[in-house]
Design goal:
The complex is a heterodimer of chains A (449) and B (120). Chain A is an alpha/beta fold. Among the domains of chain A are: 5-158, 3-Layer(aba) Sandwich (Rossmann fold); 355-433, ANL, C-terminal domain (GMP Synthetase, Chain A, domain 3, 2-Layer Sandwich). Chain A is built from 13 helices and 27 strands. In chain A, β23 and β24 form a beta hairpin. Chain A is globular, with a radius of gyration of 23 Å. Chain B has a single domain (8-111), classed as Non-ribosomal Peptide Synthetase Peptidyl Carrier Protein, Chain A, CATH 1.10.1200. Chain B is 50% helix and 0% strand. Chain B contains four helices and no strands. Chain B has helices at residues 10-31, 57-75, 84-87, 97-111. The longest helix of chain B is centred in the N-terminal third of the chain and has 22 residues, at 10-31. Classes of the chains: A alpha/beta (449), B mainly alpha (120). The interface between A and B is medium-sized, with 29 and 34 residues.
């Protein structure tokens, strides 16, 4: 046992009959979770699992996934949460993280243990073991190239949950192998709240769960919120129990925020800011209709260097297992996020790596997406840059429409709309309609006159 | 395609004409959105970009992309009209409507595996 006893103390304080999780429409109490942690502790000893094992936990949010994660952390192991969403890169992840044991939780929550003939020897593991701390590996979904394996001192991540906060009934929307998902899980359980799990993350299923279990807090992403607004699910489920919606993981289009505000006038809308590499920062939006956010405090220092956010914190990762360190010599993590600062508040524009350079002018996709989202008939939109011989790069918008306009008709309307809201270089030079009518390629010679 | 009868020239001429219609239609679309209008009444001689041109570089990019997309849509051929090849032309393929039509027709013919210049 290490310094994580406080977690079990807090679970006990919640009351053994209180509901810790809703899973597959079943109620799981804090008493059950504590018993399960004790059971898994015995299981790990019997199975000969040691502190130097790197254990992948292949699971979704479930009672046993929760209990096992706590037991593994207490046991001093390094945990690699993996979900089915990364099935395609699973072998690469196991190899990169030097996983020695996989514990796979099936849909019915039964466990299968598999051993691998690997001996972890990464210098960062040696450093972790010297401090006798549990580890956590998260794979950051880089916008380009290979995922980076982020190694954390897991105890440092969990330490922040010592401070009591209100424990709400919360939907576990973000994934089990994502920093946001892990943050949701421990934030809620360390404060005696209830985690409501869902089998899939479609608007209808999420709304039904919120309605049925009177969920108060929905931590999610702008993309899902847009989907929710256009899905029509809100007509059937008014979601009156919701008190707070938090959004993070990507830049929120201002137009989506305003539509959300109009639809949920009494719900507090909060922007969160977190990264696999540093954890989730305490944050507070200036207001529910503002994209300016106060971030940091509670052990997180922030500074802006060349328009880019840097963070220093005791919970910053030890490093990447498979990439150079993005941490400065004096301990600041370079986030790669372009920001503007005003009186201690930040406005986040997006990843510097996604910035489009149009003839020397800098464009962030999120700003353009926001303007396009506000157009009638635009269900979804994605903006990216493409090299172009004349201006270096051009702005390309892929749009899904609810209208039956032709490309030329929509383009005309779009340019008129964009000219009123954007500088000329930000108006997309190319529009692609993403409605499945893919042309070119295979038929190209057949259709020539 | 190996025949050298005169009427075999027809497909290329038809295609060039279709591309001209595409370019002019996109110019009209541009005119509906911009103060800087392409003088489509001048047909092939209408200036686009350069010393006598009316388009900004961003407008030119939009026009070229729209022409590329329309060519792909109508003719089923994917072409890139602005690339190193275009830049290396002795005179810019973007100076007039006619130059753009001629250049696009050549690229379409190349892509479609036909000879751009017709027959000997």
């Amino acid at each position: 046992m290490n310094g994580l006893q406080f977690l079990e103390d807090r679970f006990a304080a919640a009351g053994s009959e209180s509901t810790a999780l809703i899973w597959q429409d079943r109620t799981v109490t804090y008493g059950w979770v504590l018993d399960a942690i004790a059971g898994w502790r015995r299981y790990l000893v019997d199975a000969g699992v040691g502190a130097r094992d790197v254990v992948s936990l292949t699971a979704e949010f479930s009672p046993n996934a929760t209990a096992l994660m706590v037991a593994l952390a207490e046991h001093g192991c390094t945990i690699v949460p993996l979900t089915s969403s990364v099935a395609a890169t699973r072998e690469e992840f196991l190899e990169t993280a030097q996983v020695t044991i996989d514990i796979n939780l099936e849909k019915d929550d039964s466990a299968t243990l598999t051993r691998f003939a690997r001996v972890p020897d990464h210098p960062l593991y040696l450093k972790l073991w010297a401090s006798q701390r549990p580890g956590l590996i998260l794979f950051s979904s880089g916008s380009s190239g290979r995922s980076k394996a982020v190694l954390h001192d897991f105890q440092n991540i969990l330490e922040k949950f010592r401070e009591p906060r209100p424990g709400k009934c919360t939907l576990a929307f973000l994934l089990f192998d994502h920093i946001g998902g892990i943050n949701t899980l421990f934030h809620v359980l360390s404060n005696g709240g209830t985690v409501v799990t869902v089998s899939d993350r479609s608007p209808a299923v999420v709304c039904e769960a919120i309605e049925k279990y009177q969920v108060e807090l929905l931590p999610t992403s702008p993309t899902f919120l847009n989907l929710l607004l256009i899905s029509g699910a809100l007509d059937r489920f008014p979601l009156r129990s919701l008190r707070t919606i938090t959004y993070g993981t990507e830049v929120m289009p201002e137009s989506t925020l305003f539509r959300l505000r109009a639809r949920f006038p009494d719900v507090v809308l909060l922007q969160t800011y977190g990264l696999s590499e540093v954890g989730i920062l305490r944050s507070r939006s200036e207001s529910s209709d503002s994209l300016w956010v106060r971030i940091g405090g509670n052990g997180f220092d922030t500074r802006v260097v060349d328009g880019m956010l840097e963070i220093r914190s005791s919970s910053t990762m030890l490093g990447y297992l498979n990439a150079p360190s993005p941490i400065t010599a004096d301990g600041w993590f370079m986030t790669g996020d372009a920001v503007e600062e005003r009186d201690g508040l930040f406005r986040i524009f997006g990843r510097k790596s996604e910035q489009i350079n149009v003839g020397g002018e800098k464009v962030f996709p999120a700003e353009i997406e926001s303007v396009l989202h506000a157009m009638e008939g635009v269900a979804d939109v994605c903006v990216h840059g493409e090299p172009h011989a004349i201006v270096g790069n051009m702005v390309v918008a892929t749009v899904r429409l609810t209208t039956d306009e032709t490309l030329a008709q929509f383009r005309h309307r779009m340019v008129q709309h964009c000219r009123a809201h954007l500088a000329p270089f930000k108006v997309p030079q190319k529009v692609v309609l993403g409605r499945g009518e893919l042309h070119g390629g295979r038929f190209k010679k057949r259709r020539v006159v | 395609m190996t025949s050298s009868k005169p009427d075999e020239l027809a497909p290329n001429a038809i295609m060039t004409d279709r591309i001209r219609q595409i370019v002019l239609a996109r110019c009209l679309e541009h005119n509906g959105l911009s103060e800087r209008k392409v003088d489509v009444a001048r047909g092939d001689d209408a200036p686009l970009f350069g010393i006598d041109g009316v388009l900004t570089s961003l407008e030119l990019v939009s026009l070229i992309v729209a022409v590329e997309q329309e060519i792909e849509d109508q003719l089923g051929v994917m072409v890139t009209l602005a690339d190193a090849k275009a830049a290396s032309q002795r005179s810019s393929p973007f100076r007039t409507v006619g130059a753009l039509v001629e250049y696009a027709a050549g690229r379409v013919a190349e892509e479609a595996g036909m000879e751009a210049g017709g027959h000997d």
